[in-house]
């Protein structure tokens, strides 16, 4: 299938990338033998703008997308986090390519008002909207043009290729890791502070982005996960169905035992002895110490979770699901996020 994939591909990061879910989708589409033309709206705007000032290249970026679509004639257009591209431009895409299917993907949390508005705006023009929060939360967007579907955060075997579960904790630099610098719309810093204050003398707690420890990105982030036994998946807010930041896949996919709040109901998607759930900070601390003192149990659970992610929530399945759901084709695989979404 001929696909145009519009998303921030981070060309100007020159390898020092942050969250790379758009790249995982791009790689997954290619692995499934689709003919994919990437279009990085922000980078094109900067490249085309006078003096490289991105805001001056917005109009030109929209024009270049239309030029790309007209030349490429895709059957499917997937638009990710590409705010530079207007809804009017997407309507023009339909005129240039009669019969084309246009879908949106949004990997940001619904509780951020700006992102909520972006989803609502895009739902007016796309045929389907895939959101990383579970479908139970998406009915707030019902009534617009878009069909509403959940998409997970996948692993990519070429990205999450480390396996901390295969190594004894004594060989790893860190017993526990939490990476974050974001403080908006969240109180998770209290949990991190509690663990830091009460467990730091018992476990080696690595906190890039907090307590004066510099943040890590790109290759440095990958290596930090590879050398960590356990990791905290603390989202900015908890309790939304199947909502998690991409760090859950990044940690679990690298064999890091992952602790996540039980209120997101991932237990309905994941088998037993994979993710570790908690309902309070006291329970979290108890479970951290239990796994810290039983390294065989830590390695067993982390290994199970890594295998499950790589088998059932990898980017090849993720990409094919988006294609099949977009085109309303029969599903070729029993996707775990579809089988258990009710």
How does the SSE layout of this entry go?
Layout: E1 2-6, H1 21-31, E2 35-39, H2 41-48, H3 58-72, E3 76-79, H4 87-96, E4 101-106, H5 113-123, E5 128-131, E6 147-150, E7 174-177, H6 189-199, E8 205-206, H7 218-226, E9 228-233, H8 247-253, E10 257-261, E11 276-278, H9 281-293, H10 295-312, H11 315-327, H12 336-339
Helix pairs in contact: 1-11, 2-3, 3-4
Within CATH, the superfamily of the largest domain carries the name: Glycogen Phosphorylase B
Largest sheet: 6 strands, parallel
Give the total of domains. 2
Rg, please? 21 Å
CATH architecture of the largest domain: 3-Layer(aba) Sandwich
Give, in spatial order, the strands making up the sheet with the most strands. Answer: 2-1-3-4-5-6
Helical proportion, percent range: 25-40%
Span from first to last CA?
30 Å
Q: Predict the CATH topology of the largest domain.
A: Rossmann fold
Number of helices: 12
Structure description:
With 342 residues, this protein is an alpha/beta fold. The chain has 2 domains: 2-154 and 314-339, 3-Layer(aba) Sandwich (Rossmann fold); 164-312, Rossmann fold. It has helices at residues 21-31, 41-48, 58-72, 87-96, 113-123, 189-199, 218-226, 247-253, 281-293, 295-312, 315-327, 336-339; strands at residues 2-6, 35-39, 76-79, 101-106, 128-131, 147-150, 174-177, 205-206, 228-233, 257-261, 276-278. Helix 1 (21-31) packs across helix 11 (315-327), helix 2 crosses helix 3 and helix 3 packs parallel to helix 4. It is globular. 43% of the residues are buried. The model has no long low-confidence stretch (mean pLDDT 93).
